[in-house]
Amino acid sequence: MPAPHPPEFRRRAVELARGKAAPVAQIAKDLGISESCLRNWMARADIDKGKKQGSGGHLVQRPSAAARTAPADPSRPL
To answer: Whole-angstrom Cα distance, residue 77 to residue 27?
Structure first.
């Protein structure tokens, strides 16, 4: 797995892609990253700026398998 790019590199890459001077695929190629990587950075920037709804992904805690399959507590209100 390659080393992560510095935040400033990511920020500038997103700015270039948003400037629409060239297609996202071409900008990504010029920067030596994949198109999907650049699109992920763009989506993450939107989430961070509040322009798009999203979650922290890996930060979201999911209920355990036991909690998902446990029978409902009849004494608990709906």
So the answer is: 54
